[in-house]
Amino acid sequence: MAVELTNFRTLGGYPAADGRIKDGLLYRGGQIADLDQNQILYLKDKLAISRVVDFRSQAERKQYPDSVWGGIDYDAIDVLVDAKKSGVSIEGMINNAGDISQVMLATYAQLVTSPSAQKGYHQFMTALVDDPKPTFFHCFAGKDRTGVAAALILKTAGVSDNDIFEDYLKTNESRKKANEQIIHQLADKLTTGQQKALSQALVVDRRYLKHFFVTINQQYGHFENYLKEGLGLEKGFVPEFRHQYVV
User: How much is the pTM?
Assistant: First the structure.
């Protein structure tokens, strides 16, 4: 059955270290509030998703609670709870629309350095290895907090940088319709300039993810060191992760 979910896709199939990422285990997307029965059945029965990881803030979760089903493991991990200023929620995008590029660059640096991000991505990555099962992870738009989580998975699995950035940038096409709807819904509350700025805030930019990796190299020297010292993952984590997710 054809079911539409905003910015939803699998990470399965990407060429990785000595193979490719397994199908049927890793899915990314935007928030899943107000799903209809067909959408729930697609996630529950067709894809057999049994874990949902929600990177949104408590306020976002309260305003738009996920549509979850019986028997699901639901993990709420606010990776930006420590952030002083962020453009990842719709309110943050509007409030910071004037300087969104600078705010987003700062946000991606905080996704490396802030205690909540380090603790949250540690929890996320550890759960994937300790209990591998079909997992859907998301935030509000499925572009920043989720984009970094996907990049962490792909990089750890040995996927090429080209493929990592290609997956990241797919968001702009996948969210086109949803972004237009958001602008339309808020049109009477925003000036023309604010609408234009919000349009920019709702897309991803290659510079943002690049800044994430640059910050890792500046703070930790290289990615493997970041996994060990930044995220506190054990020495054998990478081979174990690849054992579970690369075929």
Answer: 0.94
Q: Could you state, in chain order, the average pLDDT of each consecutive group of 10 residues for the chain (247 residues)?
A: 85 97 98 96 97 96 95 96 67 66 90 97 98 97 96 98 98 94 88 81 94 98 98 97 98
Contacts of 132 (CB under 8 A, 6+ apart): 25, 244, 245
In the three-class reduction of DSSP (H, G, I as helix; E, B as strand; rest coil), residue 141 is classed as coil
Apex CA 133: angle with CA 128 and CA 135, to 5°?
A: 75
Which are the contacts of 247, defined by CB distance < 8 A and separation ≥ 6? 19, 20, 21, 22
Q: How many CB atoms lie within 10 A of CB 162?
A: 8
Q: Residue type at 5?
A: L
Structure tokens at 200: 């920019």
Alpha-carbon distances, residue 98 vs 28, 52, 61, 176, 232 (angstroms): 29, 33, 26, 21, 36
Is residue 50 a contact partner of residue 132, using CB atoms and an 8 Å limit?
no
Q: Which residue has the tokens 């709807």?
A: 181
Strand ranges, E, within the chain: 9-10, 15-16, 19-20, 26-29, 51-54, 73-76, 135-138
Tell me the two tokens of residue 123. Answer: 């929890």
d(CA 247, CA 241): 11
